[in-house]
Write a structure and sequence with these properties.
- The protein is about 35% helix and about 20% strand.
- By secondary structure, it is α/β, with parallel strands linked by helices.
- The strands form 2 sheets. A 6-stranded parallel β-sheet has the order 3-2-1-4-5-6, with helices on both faces. The chain has a 3-stranded antiparallel β-sheet with strand order 7-9-8.
- The radius of gyration is 21 Å and the shape is elongated.
Length: about 250
């Protein structure tokens, strides 16, 4: 179902360079019927945003910084979010910020039954990340915007990807076990959904893979099996933890 989303952007806390890629990413999860960006537009630090607002139909909301050291933008964004919530015009929110001040807002929106997607930089504090249903790093979108660069540039970009650690491999293995049948097989789609619920910022793109299947294939402790779908032509992909063979020879 294509849900209606309210996209609220913290202009003081998010770089403008990849707004096009960001809006394309948001469109994967729903229809962004409300798009607003908050900040003090009299300040020069927001000048780069101005040329992109019309192109992406984002409404700027002026918020003066009344007191030095206090973030009035956060307060305006939170108030608007609650007004939108009570208007019942959307089914979910996309909060674009790297600021932990929105942690309570994300929690409150989810308590009201809203789907909450967060977008921010990798410096985003963990409390805000885990308060969202899904959290997407802007660094992933930066990589996407450079896909047309030379192969040499791509190689440099790949160095920024995370590497799967043994701890994360065990976490994926445990998730497979949570869903597996008597033979150890689990439907990969269900595994991906549960991984997302356990860790909102889990994304194969963090590790240089566009989808979960190639990520799983890259880890030699897992087995992949394709099966015919009983309801269509598409193949269903199942995964299980690779069975360890005993190295001892039986007498």
């Amino acid at each position: 179902m294509n849900i209606n989303l309210a996209v609220l952007i913290d202009g003081d806390n998010i770089p403008s360079a990849h707004v096009k890629e960001m809006m394309e990413e948001i469109a994967k999860y729903g229809n962004p019927t409300i798009k607003r960006i908050y900040g003090d537009w009299t300040k020069p630090n927001l000048s780069k945003w101005k040329s992109m607002l019309l192109e992406n139909a984002i409404t700027p909301i002026q918020q003066y910084a009344y007191t030095s050291g206090k973030n009035a933008t956060d307060s305006a964004m939170i108030i608007d979010a609650m007004d939108i919530l009570y208007s019942e015009k959307v089914n979910g929110f996309c909060l674009v910020s790297s600021d932990s001040d929105f942690t309570r807002l994300a929690t409150r929106l989810r308590e009201a039954g809203m789907q909450v997607i967060g977008i921010g930089e990798k410096k985003t504090p963990t409390p805000f990340i885990v308060a969202c249903d899904k959290f997407i790093y802007i660094e992933i979108l930066k990589t996407k915007s450079k896909e047309k660069e030379t192969e040499e540039d791509k190689d440099v970009e790949k160095e920024e990807f995370d590497k799967i650690t043994p701890k994360e491999t065990k976490w994926i293995a445990a998730t497979i076990n949570d869903l597996s049948d008597d033979d150890g097989w689990a439907f990969l789609g269900d595994v991906g959904s549960l991984l997302q619920k356990k860790k909102p910022n889990f994304d194969p793109r963090n590790y240089g893979f566009q989808k979960l299947t190639p990520l799983i294939k890259s880890i030699n402790t897992f087995e992949i099996e394709q099966r015919d779908s009983p309801k269509g032509r598409n193949k269903l992909i199942f995964v299980r933890n690779r069975v360890k063979r005993s190295s001892r020879v039986k007498k």
